[in-house]
Amino acid sequence: MSAGKIKTIPALEARTQLGRLMKEVRRDGLRVLVEKAGVPMVGIISAEEFQRIVAEREARFAVLDRIRRRLPAVPERQIARDVAQAVKEVRRRRLA
Question: Residue 61: inside a domain, yes or no?
């Protein structure tokens, strides 16, 4: 499915027009961004698109998990020390 049009609507309209919106989302590939007081709150996408996004996300995390399993175990305290040292070094270089 190709990327569909995005429609932004207020929450009250989404509530009163939910059935119609669901049909448009499924039939036309419409994506709906629901706002409350002008602030984006939720998006409405088709179930097919949602399942595709979830599957892609899970596949990406599976790759990260495979990479993580190949790395040596390093205690979190050591990681925190290394990060702090790296930040300190970058700041020192910027001030130089």
Answer: yes
CA 80 to chain centre: 26
Determine contact, residues 36/13, Cβ cutoff 8 Å: no
> From the CB of residue 33, how many other CB atoms can be counted at a distance below 10 Å?
14
Look at the alpha carbons of 30, 35, 38, 39 in this order and tell me if their dihedral is positive or negative: negative
Write down the pTM of the prediction.
0.64
- For the chain, percent of residues with pLDDT exceeding 90: 84
Same-domain pairing of 61 and 89: yes
Alpha carbons 14 and 25: distance in angstroms, whole number: 12
Quote helix, strand, coil % in the chain, to nearest 5: 65, 20, 20
In order of 5, 25, 79, 93, the CA distances from 57 in angstroms are: 22, 22, 26, 37
Which residue range is the domain that position 32 belongs to?
6-45
Q: Contacts by 65-71 with C-beta closer than 8 Å and gap 24+? A: none
Residues composing the chain: 96
